[in-house]
Amino acid sequence: MSAARALYSLLTWCAQPLLRRKLRRRAVAEPAYAQAMDERFGRYPAAAIDRLLAPGGSAGRLVWLHAVSLGETRAAAVLLERLREQLPGMRLLLTHGTATGRAEGEKLLRSGDLQVWQPWDTPGAVARFLRSFRPAVGVLLDTEVWPNLVAGCRRHGVPLVLANARLSEKSLRRAQRLAALARPAYGALSAVWAQTGEDAARLRCLGAEVRGVLGNLKFDLLPNAEQLAQGRAWRAQTGRPVLMLASSREGEEALWLEHFQKARAHPAADAGQAADVQWLIVPRHPQRFDAVQQLFERAGLSVSRRSAWAALPEPADLWLGDSLGEMALYYGLADAALLGGSFAPLGGQNLIEAAACGCPVLLGPHTFNFAQAAELACAAGAAQRVAHMAAGMALATQWVHDAAQQGAASARATRFAGAHRGAAQATAQAIAAIVQSAPAPPGKPMR
Fold it and tell me: How far apart are CA 371 and CA 55, in angstroms?
């Protein structure tokens, strides 16, 4: 073990009590964080392992897929469909880092599959995880590269790959500052498949073995048809245009509120005619729903939450999207959307789902986490970049008061989403080739 990884391992080992405390605090708002906490440290009940092995007694086709949070888990869904076609009879070991990811992941499990928390990145927790399950392959999605996890897989003979891989310029600079940790980790991955050519170049700078540029799995996700239809039906009955601040992050709601109040007091201001539009705010993280509602109510605005709606959205100054797994409904309800995470320096959120729902998007200046998708969407006319929140609100208001312009933007968004599909099939074929060439694990997994 290198000196850098030895120091890192000591720090992660010492941080374990802090992690437990953080999980207990988060469990106050999201109880799932308190469930099966020992799994985070590589300790699993014997019954769970026995259940994983029960039908055939062999883990030779055990595919471990790590999807840290909600977005990655949704992308994993379409990849899993293709993987099950490529590897009939495979069993799935699904790991996550967040409660929302784990809740979404439950929908992907079949008989013989198992779901556990991602092991904390200490050598001991990683070793216990790998000895317990001995997967035929490990698949990390997007950016989830952990030094001890990669080193442990190499030591235990588990091929570990990074699929749907992306790396922003900011992340590359940070990794280069920690090159003594990052380069061995990226270099020890068995294979990397990048989303874009730019991602591939940056990953190679860290020593990753990039075997191809296969595109973004999220383009292969189709929106929930029932939700989309419901949202569009509600939109038709609202009587006025609907604009959304989608997947908003901390600080952006306050920024939006500042310009909304100015626009309402002075309808001719740059932020547009706010009184003519129904606004829908959908925060990115569920633990912030109550705080966002309180922010608006303290400003004197009435708020109607999605969780209280029955047949139709209830009248209010603002609608608050406080549900999980219903973004297709919200995008169907909206005539256009401002993309959260892009108006604060947070790198933006995924715009692909909006495009697939035919909802044109306004982007703020900060989209480094989805740089190429943002550039392609703007080039295709499915999105447009603005300098700040006020400009986005003004342009969105202009769009929705021009039916021809909004309809054309919606059609361009739909075409853009459909033009970039195919990553799931190509990625599944590449992973299957590694599984089929890997030797079967020796014997029954240890506890």
Answer: 45
Query: Tell me, what amino acid is at 2?
Result: S
Q: pLDDT by residue (tens digit) across 271-326?
A: 445 558 999 999 998 889 999 999 999 999 999 999 999 888 988 999 999 998 89
Main-chain phi, psi angles of 74, to 5 degrees: -65, -40
Say if 220 falls within a structural domain: no
Which residue among 39, 72, 144, 252 is the active-site one? 72
d(CA 375, CA 137): 34
For 119, list phi and psi in degrees, rounded to 5: -70, 140
Each residue's pLDDT tens digit, 5-17: 999 999 999 999 9
Tokens coding 109: 């499990």
The rounded distance, in Å, linking the Cα atoms of 86 and 94 is 18
Q: Which residue has the tokens 């309800």?
A: 333
CATH of the domain at 338: 3.40.50.2000
Using an 8 Å Cβ cutoff, are 190 and 159 in contact?
yes
Query: What percent of the chain is predicted at pLDDT more than 90?
Result: 75
How many whole angstroms separate alpha carbon 320 and alpha carbon 303?
7
Lowest mean pLDDT among 143-152, 267-276, 342-351: 267-276
Which residue bears the tokens 């075409």? Answer: 415
Task: List pLDDT tens digits, range 211-264.
Answer: 999 999 999 999 999 999 999 999 999 888 999 999 999 999 999 999 999 888
Residue 442 forms part of a structural domain:
no
Report pLDDT for 271.
Answer: 46
Sign for the CA dihedral angle at 225, 285, 350, 428 comes to negative
Q: Please, which residues bridge with residue 66 across strands?
A: 95, 140
Catalytic-residue membership of 353: no
What does residue 303 show for φ and ψ, rounded to 5 degrees? -125, 130
Residues 143 and 233 in one domain: no
Note down the domain range covering 143. 3-215+422-437
Rounded to whole angstroms, the Cα distance separating 20 from 5 reads 22
Residue 447 inside a domain? The answer is no
Q: How far is CA 368 from CA 50, 184, 247, 314, in A?
A: 44, 25, 16, 36
d(CA 53, CA 59): 7
Pick from 327, 291, 285: which is nearest to 306 by CA?
327
Give pTM, 2 decimals: 0.80
3-state secondary structure of 384: strand
Residues 331 and 357 sit within 8 Å (Cβ to Cβ): yes
